[in-house]
Design brief:
The complex is a heterodimer. In chain A, helix 3 runs parallel beside helix 5 (146-158) and helix 5 (146-158) packs parallel to helix 6. By secondary structure, chain A is α/β, with parallel strands linked by helices. In chain A, the strands form two sheets. Chain A has a six-stranded mixed sheet with strand order 6-7-8-3-9-10, with helices on both faces. Chain A has a four-stranded antiparallel sheet with strand order 2-1-4-5, with helices on one face. Chain A has helices spanning 46-53, 76-86, 102-112, 117-130, 146-158, 176-192, 204-207; strands at residues 8-17, 20-30, 35-39, 61-66, 69-70, 87-90, 164-168, 196-200, 212-217, 220-223. Chain A is globular, with a radius of gyration of 17 Å. Chain A is built from seven helices and ten strands. Chain B folds into four domains: 25-87 and 217-350, no CATH class; 105-203, no CATH class; 358-477 and 669-806, no CATH class; 479-667, no CATH class. Chain B contains 19 helices and 20 strands. Chain B has helices at 27-44, 46-87, 148-155, 160-165, 217-241, 246-258, 263-293, 315-336, 363-377, 387-417, 424-435, 438-476, 490-501, 540-544, 648-659, 672-709, 711-719, 724-760, 769-797, and strands spanning 103-107, 110-112, 115-124, 143-146, 170-174, 187-191, 201-203, 340-343, 346-349, 480-486, 506-519, 533-537, 547-548, 557-560, 575-577, 593-595, 601-605, 618-620, 634-641, 664-667. In chain B, helix 12 (438-476) runs antiparallel to helix 16 (672-709). The radius of gyration of chain B is 37 Å and the shape is elongated. Classes of the chains: A alpha/beta, B alpha+beta.
């Protein structure tokens, strides 16, 4: 059963890489517009949990429910379609397509969803303005700073107006000033659009931007007290 | 102060001076150490290292094999010519008198089902005649020695008519290798008891003072362009393969920097890795060459067929190849590292994106134009085959081919730079090429040179053969075979005609006796410089096939209008010399006067069957001239036949062989040029396919390498829900764009070069559009092939594994 009102919920997730268990019966749920920080030490299974929740990988057992869909039962094609339409992603680094301009990078998920180029780029430009990086629209990722790149990545994640944004260590490669700015912009924009955010981090100061935090340890999830 | 010297670090003060550098080792020792270390890495560098080594070795092996085969061409031709020179002697300048050591020697060549067979007849004058190479002694009377290939042919079931033709001689042995030009040569040497003085030459030795003609300019250009067209893709392949697995190699080199290796050391180590592959390639190339030359006996090109042992490069050339090819591979590695500095914590690429300029890229084509265009502008003059012109032609062609490699990157950059919009896969491919088109263009430049070279070579070959082929095609439509040979009397000619008319398939046979006559000697007249007049003897019926005669009976003579522009001195009542010099410039013999009957009448010659004019100055019926007064008379026989009769041609040849084994045949019934052209066309097509596959392999390497370097990005795109098809199409466009541009440039340059060359050598233009379409289609197939093989690694790399950081 999905916890009442939750947008995305996982139950009893188990996933092992060879003999090493990454998730060992993890449960999780998130409500629309909620920002949940997933914390834990290195190797605890945070990223694996995020990948299972987003339908990037299929768990060995357990279920992930998203609205009326059981993600774990969907085919790869359907999960891919869901990721294009309903989910957004921000990773630590190496996520922008180097040969595309920043504007084209932000427009890319929209275009993958069959939005026409002009319309996609128009909306991408709005998001770049909102993330305060419209001045780098015509530049390629190799020509901008790391902070600007993460903001472009956030713009790209939010441009298709996803219902869930998955952010895996989004500030891991940034200095604290840039990191805070990126987190503020990400969480504010997500709240404005009622998007839920799953924020994987191992930094307590990053988790401070979340409404709720959970800790993954040895593949199990422990819910911490909420800060709402 | 203490008298004891303290040890550094033991007296409370740390020694802050930098550590002393080890004594500088000698440069060769340092190079040897680093190269050896690189070779060790190549040998033990894991799967990627081995793949790179194997690919480099494959490229070098192909390059070495091609070079060794190319370098063998001169020695091969020398050996081929030398054997011909040693075994032949069709006439000595000063014929020896008959003796114990002389023999009569004559040509008795024939053709069987379109294949030429070299025949030689001998009749020894004494007991110790000369023996040609490949034999211990001459065959006895009525016997013959044959080449192994001819023996095989004679033993085959379909050679009944040939067995009948040579049936006068029994096989007594096989000619040894040194007596043959090549293993597939069809030849025999028979002892004829009937060979007459007039049928052949008296000789006292075998071997002739004859030097082969040097290659003509078009042939030289063909050889050079073939080498360029074959070697460029091989070099491109080597360039691509040494870059394979660069990322891991750079990480390894960075680790070495961390433990103290300097930049030069890392470059030497990288060179050592390439050197290992090169040395393996050198070994492989040698083995490939040895294997390839075993195929030589099975190949006949332009009637040249040689033994495996003939295919051997000169020692200096072989040494140069052995040194230069591995050195080139190392050089490519060093060039590939230009602008890359391996630092202890990673690799720094400090090559800013440079906009490609056109001006210097045009230098090679412009230089080529400077060499070729003046030759084109004087094309109305006949081609002058001088060494300077040959050099200009070869250098101009080669520069144009190389110029393509410089023009292609600029062309790709300019064209791709102008592309906008389009669906996502197209946009990803275009943007990727806009960011860096170097690797793809580098691989494609090989295709471009190979295809342009193949088109130009093909045009040159087609153009060179078109004249012959057209003539053969035209004359071959007339089912006619002509023979000529020695005769003594009109009677024997009549017998020959009767025999031919009785042959299956013959519809008509006509013949005459041709002889020469000149002017009588006179003071101040150099007879050796006189062009002789042609007299032809035949019955009235035969002469009526040659000219429109008023009335004719045996004993009549007719003066023709053959050469109204030349005063031959042939008029009724004039005295002619029936013993003129047979060879222009030779001293005249004793004059043999004969007076043209004053009653000789005029006759108008009819054109020949193929429309060409005839050159008979005087037509004589048999009774008009005593055969005893003939000098070197030849009977000329024209035989028409029905193509519908099976093997009519071979039956006619058998009859001709019975009339006289030394009869010379002239016909257009077999067109050797068509077969040669087909052979060359097939060879070119095969070469183009192999080259394009090689380039395809290079493209796969660079595509997979690029995908491997972007595996994290591919995982991210997969996380965003990007369809596999989207990225698959992107790879297709990324491969197709440079290849399509390269092929367009290749076709343009190939056609331009072919047109220039054909115009220069004064041959009609001939473009084999089907061939060009075929080569272009193979290019398209390569694109699909590369894309198809790139998809499995692409999809493998789209898995989420790339997102894992722990």
């Amino acid at each position: 059963m999905t916890p009442e009102g939750s947008l995305l919920a996982a139950e009893g997730l188990r996933k092992a890489y060879g003999p090493t268990p990454a998730l060992d019966g993890a449960d999780f749920s998130i409500h629309p517009g909620e920002v949940v920080a997933v914390m834990g030490p290195s190797g605890s299974g945070k990223s694996t949990l995020l990948h299972c929740l987003a339908g990037i990988i299929r768990p060995d057992s357990g279920t992930v429910r998203y609205g009326p869909h059981t993600l774990t039962d969907l085919s790869d094609t359907h999960r891919s379609a869901l990721r294009r339409t309903d989910f957004g992603f921000v990773f630590q680094f190496g996520q922008l397509v180097p040969e595309l301009t920043c504007l084209e990078n932000v427009a890319l998920p929209l275009r993958l969803n069959a939005t026409r180029r002009k319309a996609a780029e128009h909306r991408a430009r709005d998001w770049l303005e909102r993330l305060e990086v419209d001045d780098v629209a015509a530049k390629r990722p190799g020509e901008i700073s790391g902070g600007q790149g993460q903001r472009v990545a956030v713009a790209r994640a939010l441009a298709p107006q996803p219902r869930v944004v998955f952010a895996d260590e989004p500030t891991g490669a940034l200095d604290s000033l840039n990191g805070e700015r990126v987190l503020t912009l990400l969480t504010d924009a997500a709240r404005d659009t009622s998007a839920a955010v799953v924020l994987v981090t191992h930094e307590a100061r990053v988790a401070a931007y979340a409404d709720r935090e959970i800790v993954v340890r040895d593949g199990r999830v422990k819910d911490m007290a909420g800060r709402i | 102060m203490t008298l004891l010297r303290s040890r550094p670090g033991t007296d409370g003060e740390r020694d802050t001076a930098p550590p002393a550098l080890p004594a500088a080792r000698r440069a060769p020792a340092v190079w040897a150490r680093d190269l050896a270390m690189g070779m060790r890495f190549a040998a033990g560098g894991g799967r990627e290292g081995w793949i790179r080594t194997a690919l480099t070795a494959a490229g070098v092996a192909l390059g070495v094999a091609v070079l060794l085969l190319g370098a063998s061409a001169p020695t091969l031709m020398n050996a081929w010519h030398a054997r011909e020179k040693a075994r032949e002697n069709l006439g000595q300048a000063h014929p020896p008198p008959p003796g114990d050591r002389t023999l009569l020697y004559a040509s008795a060549n024939t053709t069987f089902h379109g294949t030429a067979i070299r025949g030689r007849l001998v009749r020894p004058d004494g007991t110790r005649p000369p023996v040609p190479p490949g034999l211990d002694h001459l065959p006895g009377p009525g016997r013959m020695v044959v080449s192994p290939a001819l023996k095989e042919l004679l033993d085959s079931p379909g050679a009944g008519l040939l067995r009948e033709r040579l049936g006068a001689y029994r096989i007594a042995g096989v000619i040894g290798d040194e007596g043959l030009q090549g293993p597939r040569e069809l030849t025999y040497l028979a002892q004829s008891t009937t060979l007459g003085e007039r049928d052949g030459y008296r000789i006292d030795h075998f071997g002739k003072n004859w030097e082969p003609r040097p290659l003509t300019a078009p042939a030289t250009v063909l050889v050079i362009m073939t080498c360029v067209a074959l070697l460029t893709p091989v070099m491109v392949f080597i360039g691509t393969s040494v870059r394979f697995g660069n990322e891991r190699r750079e990480r390894r080199l960075a680790a070495l920097r961390l433990v103290g290796a300097d930049v030069r050391t890392t470059r030497r180590i990288a060179s050592g890795e390439a050197l290992f592959g090169s040395l393996l390639g050198l070994l492989g190339g040698g083995l490939l060459f040895l294997a390839a030359r075993q195929l030589a006996p099975a190949i006949t090109l332009w009637d040249i067929n040689v033994y495996s042992a003939d295919v051997a490069p000169g020692p200096v050339t072989a040494l140069l190849i052995a040194v230069l090819v591995p050195a080139a591979a190392v050089l490519v590695t060093l060039v590939a590292q230009r602008g890359v500095t391996v630092e202890p914590l990673g690799v720094v690429r400090h090559r800013p994106p440079v906009r490609r300029r056109l001006w210097w890229r045009l230098a090679l084509p412009v230089l080529s134009a400077l060499l070729l265009v003046p030759l084109v502008l004087r094309h109305r003059q006949p081609w002058d085959d001088t060494p300077v012109n040959t050099f200009r032609l070869a250098a101009g062609s080669t520069l144009l081919l190389f110029g393509i490699t410089a023009l292609l990157p600029w062309l790709v950059e300019r064209v791709v730079g102008r592309l906008r919009g389009g669906p996502v896969p197209w946009q990803l491919a275009v943007r990727r090429l806009q960011l860096n088109s170097g690797p793809a263009t580098r691989a494609v430049s090989g295709i471009t040179v190979a295809v342009a070279g193949a088109i130009a070579i093909h045009m040159l070959m087609t153009g060179m053969q078109t004249g012959y082929a057209a003539a053969y095609a035209k004359s071959g439509q007339v089912p006619r075979i002509s023979f000529w040979g020695h005769t003594d009397t009109w009677r024997s000619t009549e017998r020959a005609l009767a025999a031919l008319r009785a042959t299956p398939g013959v519809t008509a046979a006509h013949g005459t006796i041709d002889l020469n006559a000149g002017r009588m000697p006179a003071p101040g007249r150099d007879l050796s410089r006189d062009l002789p007049a042609v007299l032809t003897v035949g019955s009235c019926a035969e002469l009526r096939h040659l000219a429109r005669l008023p009335a004719c009976k045996d004993g009549d003579v007719f003066v023709t209008d053959a050469r109204p522009d030349r005063d031959t001195g042939i008029t009724p009542g004039a005295t002619l010399n029936l013993n003129p010099p047979l060879v222009y410039g030779e001293p005249a013999g004793r004059p043999r006067p004969w007076t043209v009957p004053p009653a000789a009448r005029a006759a108008r010659l009819l054109p020949s069957g193929d429309g060409h004019p005839r050159y008979y100055d005087l037509l004589l019926t048999p009774a008009a001239l005593d055969p005893a007064r003939y000098t070197a008379p030849d009977m000329q026989l024209d035989v028409d036949f029905d193509r519908g009769t099976p093997d009519a041609v071979e039956h006619i040849r058998n009859t001709a062989a019975r009339i006289g084994p030394t009869m010379y045949e002239s016909s257009s019934v077999d067109n050797p040029h068509d077969r040669q052209l087909d052979g060359v066309r097939t060879a070119l097509f095969t070469g183009a396919v192999i080259t394009l596959l090689l380039i395809g392999a290079g493209l796969i390497i660079s595509t997979v390498e690029q995908l491997h370097e972007r595996r994290r990005l591919l995982s991210v795109l997969d996380a965003h829900g990007t369809r596999r098809a989207t990225l698959g199409w992107s790879v297709l466009w990324q491969t197709a764009l440079p290849v399509a541009l390269g092929l367009a440039l290749a076709v343009t340059c190939g056609l331009t070069l072919g047109t220039l060359l054909l115009t220069i050598i004064g041959t009609g233009l001939a473009v084999d559009w089907a061939g060009i379409a075929g080569i272009t289609a193979i290019g398209a197939a390569v694109i699909l092939f590369v894309t198809a093989l790139s998809l499995p690694p692409l999809w493998r790399m789209m898995r989420p594994d790339g997102l894992r950081t722990e």
